[in-house]
Amino acid sequence: MRPIVAHISETALAHNLAQVRRYAPHSRVIAVVKANAYGHGLLNAARGLKETDAFAVLNISEAVALREAGYQHPILLLEGIFSAEEMALVDRYQLDIVVSHHGQLQWLLDYQVNIPVRAYLKLDSGMHRLGFQPADYQDALNQLASSGNVSEIVLMTHFANADVPDGVTQAMATVARVTDAQPYQRSLANSAAVIQQPRTHANWVRPGIMLYGATPIAEKTAASLGLKPVMTLQSGVIGIQEIQAGESVGYGSLFTADTVTRVGIVACGYADGYPRHAPSGTPIAVNGVLTRTLGRVSMDMLAADITHIPDARIGSPVELWGNLVPVDAVAQASGTIGYELLCAVTARVPMHVID
Ligand SMILES: *Cc1c(COP(=O)(O)O)cnc(C)c1O
Fold first, then answer.
1. 129 annotated ligand binder
2. Identified catalytic residue from 34, 38, 270, 274
3. Where, per the database record, does this protein carry N6-(pyridoxal phosphate)lysine (predicted)?
4. What is the mean pLDDT of the chain?
5. Is residue 5, in this structure, part of any structural domain at all?
């Protein structure tokens, strides 16, 4: 067996959920588990997050998987339904839906539900991705409010810039202008807003990335925000080279030694989801000691500098990211964000829930 494995910590998930409640003590929590729980495995993550008040997913199939695993929480379809036919499953599995355009509104109004649905009416507060325009919002709200198919309405928006300090001012002004007179509950905040925009917390917060122990805010580390990494991507050394000054490692000979260098070849590459763009110098840990990658990442392997880790040998454990190496540090070195790396771990990497 190749030594690569992703360990998923249930206690870290529970800890991060508790941190959400500390940041937003007056809100209920919708744990966002879309994208296979940001790459952690939907049902793995759901176990660690079972104390949440609700879940949010993208596809009906994910919602059905949660129901079939026995979860009776409210489950929100974050982009609503994609066709009128999906109303049958919404009704059968008692799912909550986002309504973000007139077509979705009509599909909900036209279907004969057995059990009325909780609908999240989405306002475009300036991100210009999904949602009703402010001028159309009141009319859509009136139609939902007068429909027997709707049990409860939640007013919803999503922020484009909650990760920058003053990033929600304009959007919040739009939310206030359009919804202030309304008696309904509200759901506005993603992870960044949970952490640094307290006035957005409202009735339901929708954290994703922070539950997995990565940072939503580029300037702040996850550890400094009180978050614990949930995934440890670990592998092992499968080869050792000693190269002389002037010799190189890997495709393209991108790293050339300027002194005698001991190189550990690690069983992890871009076909496992490790970013090919990670340059020489990306942090990595061998035998529990922090070091750096060397040269270009290949499909199945990468190289680590073990010159200063004399006890490293074939079989030594390697942490690609986890407690010693924040996924955000690997992401930053590679010009991306922790979200993308976590979601990109590939199916060939075995995943095990620990603790
Ligand atoms: C993905 C998503 C979230 C969670 O965002 P994070 O930045 O991961 O906290 C919240 N709301 C909506 C509508 C989303 O699509």
1. yes
2. 34
3. 34
4. 98
5. no
